[in-house]
Amino acid sequence: QLLLKLKVDYKQMTGQDYKAGCPPSENLIVSNNGPAADDCDGEDLVDPWNVSASSTKGVDYDKLIVRFGSSKIDKELLERIEKVSGQRAHHFLRRGIFFSHRDMHQILDAYEKHKSFYLYTGRGPSSEAMHVGHLIPFIFTKWLQDVFDIPLVVQMTDDEKYLWKDLTLEECHRFTVENAKDIIACGFDVNKTFIFSDLDYMGASPQFYRNVVKVQKHVTFNQVKGIFGFTDSDCIGKISFPAIQAAPSFSSSFPQIFGGKKDVPCLIPCAIDQDPYFRMTRDVAPRIGLLKPALLHSTFFPALQGAQTKMSASDPNSSIFLTDTPKQIKNKINKHAFSGGKDTVEEHRKYGGNTEVDVSFLYLTFFLEDDEKLEKIKEDYTSGALLTGELKKILIETLQPMIAQHQERRKQVTDEMVQQFMTPRPLNYKF
Amino acid sequence: QLLLKLKVDYKQMTGQDYKAGCPPSENLIVSNNGPAADDCDGEDLVDPWNVSASSTKGVDYDKLIVRFGSSKIDKELLERIEKVSGQRAHHFLRRGIFFSHRDMHQILDAYEKHKSFYLYTGRGPSSEAMHVGHLIPFIFTKWLQDVFDIPLVVQMTDDEKYLWKDLTLEECHRFTVENAKDIIACGFDVNKTFIFSDLDYMGASPQFYRNVVKVQKHVTFNQVKGIFGFTDSDCIGKISFPAIQAAPSFSSSFPQIFGGKKDVPCLIPCAIDQDPYFRMTRDVAPRIGLLKPALLHSTFFPALQGAQTKMSASDPNSSIFLTDTPKQIKNKINKHAFSGGKDTVEEHRKYGGNTEVDVSFLYLTFFLEDDEKLEKIKEDYTSGALLTGELKKILIETLQPMIAQHQERRKQVTDEMVQQFMTPRPLNYKF
């Protein structure tokens, strides 16, 4: 009778019948981390559609690690990445921009034993315009691809955008192609990179659909309600979509790349707001006989107005777009970038500025690669030697050439190149 | 304020936000016909997974027409079908086995104006073994294909069976191929017929997936809950599956057949338990700019034990299988076919038998094409001149050669033929 009661309780908590040997472990954690939980306790709100912090310093990422049940990227892991890759860690890693992970040690264990893995990241193409924040996962993913010499799949969730936004299928697909050009402009190796539109690839790969259905069989509405906060009046497309974002985590979804191998480990670099999808994926994986993907999580790229929210493509003044002219970049930063400086020059010289909330400084941590220069700027701003206007000027002069170069590279991306990247085909990789 | 209240009420009833010009018409009817409604008022239970009648005469089909909001196939429609096709109506039509329809007059209107339509039917491949009841929609569909000279698509819902049953993807796909052989053995024209596995075709046709997503965007969980009785602990695959059964109702799902035309009307011959899927489809169609499919509904093929339930592939004694030997057919009918005769020969001679509940007689209405012979049997059985054993003998002698011939034709179906029928390709048709 006790056993029976336990089974009933189990079902209420997990939405699944109890099966011996199928622990829902991570999933239980998930149920306590849904948007509902976020709403009531006044903590930072972080899910795939919303990010808002309760503090001006932005989201408390240490708390998020505890809530999401992931692990901090510590000094030991950093050193291991450097040892295994034989390269100095990317400044996104050194500066804690990629700050959290799941199972990264297992990926490195396998790689040390000459077992390849692959990278999976993605983009929701909700408009033509991408902003600098959208580049973060791609810049980092390119670095991973280069240092580990491994294949990469990039999912363009045009079906998701169709389901969530007031857009037609044709618009979403067009945004996929336009955004793919920006992604290709990041310098990915066409011999190691497959970019795919869900709308196209679902209809081009029976193996991909098979994995989608497998995931869909093993996740209940109760579970996606707990994880994503879906309600009874959400459309059935939204409710089943998480399975489509899950499927690329399994190498068998890409037989053209992995020759039908089911056991090539997957590493997903993404912003931490995407973690709910992969907590779900990791919960399902062992129940369908597949490997759990590993993850590397980044912080959010803050809006110009401050770190309480992330950049949004729908508010033009919150973001620096990849299409902005040098003049627009200059004006936006001067006008909108939240300053951590004091109200008057006198006060600033006397008390110094606050780099923890200063958006211009935060942006430099993303894009100024020179550690010494950055350290010097921090010292000078904190001491008051550097004024807000001067700090903004440094950022402007960092971003203007970076974006101009991106525009130049993007111009050179032809339709044929896009076609090539988006054609299902074998890729070259090390092992 | 009244308007606001109306909108709230509307949302509660339909699960959708109110939009001017998008009537939920049929859908509202649907909400009152879900399994929940069936459960409480003790009426016949009819949904895609359950059929059970409260009377020994079987389901009350007239009541079902009212409940489902379809139309009776009346004398006028019968005569019109004969006029337009230039053929005597099939005995399934003459005898009320196909008894209900939606928009069949519109199909005939279009056909008279030399506008083609296409047929769509399907099968859920839950095992290798099909029984005689499974042939009904295919026998009738073949007749429609022949008299109207039009293309046919046959959906094998192997993904559905994977989601609902304790089967692997490989098993479901194998059942698809095995069942396809039985379907091909019904005599379909390979130049006019496309049979597809969902597991394969979803991954082979971006246009099919696009229609699935369109449907998925326009149906809420509330709606499928009302229509199909899904609950929060159902997997997300079941919840979104109805969109996959809906999509073949739209000619744009088959660009290889219709060259991208969105406006070729679709006629679906099916057993009435599949109607919930198409009520949903017809509700969605105008909201995604596509045509509502028309339907022809059949009654259920009764189990040997009586008309209260339909034949089931999982209970071997409830069905005559297409693989049964002449001896098995004889034994099953003699042993299990529910009799409408009296307890003793004396009583039977005196009072006569009841053809309304006699399963052997019911089966003859399906498979004995000769109207006069059937009428004579009815008279003799009702008068008591014909004994139950003699009636069973007539059925046995009707089914044995029919099934032997089916087995013979099935043996001649090669793997290459199956391959041919299941390859996406252009089809030949009249207009």
From TrEMBL, chains A, B:
Query: Which Gene3D superfamilies did the record assign?
Result: HUPs, S15/NS1, RNA-binding, Tyrosyl-Transfer RNA Synthetase
Molecular function (GO) terms for this protein are: ATP binding; tryptophan-tRNA ligase activity
* Enzyme Commission number: 6.1.1.2
Arranged from A to Z, the UniProt key words for this protein are:
Aminoacyl-tRNA synthetase, ATP-binding, Ligase, Nucleotide-binding, Protein biosynthesis
User: Could you provide one GO biological process annotation from this protein's UniProt record?
Assistant: tryptophanyl-tRNA aminoacylation
For this record, the Gene Ontology CC terms, alphabetical, are: cytoplasm
Q: Which residues form a coiled coil?
A: none
What the record says about family reads: Belongs to the class-I aminoacyl-tRNA synthetase family.
Official protein name in the record: Tryptophan--tRNA ligase, cytoplasmic
Protein's organism: Astatotilapia calliptera
Q: Which gene encodes it?
A: WARS1
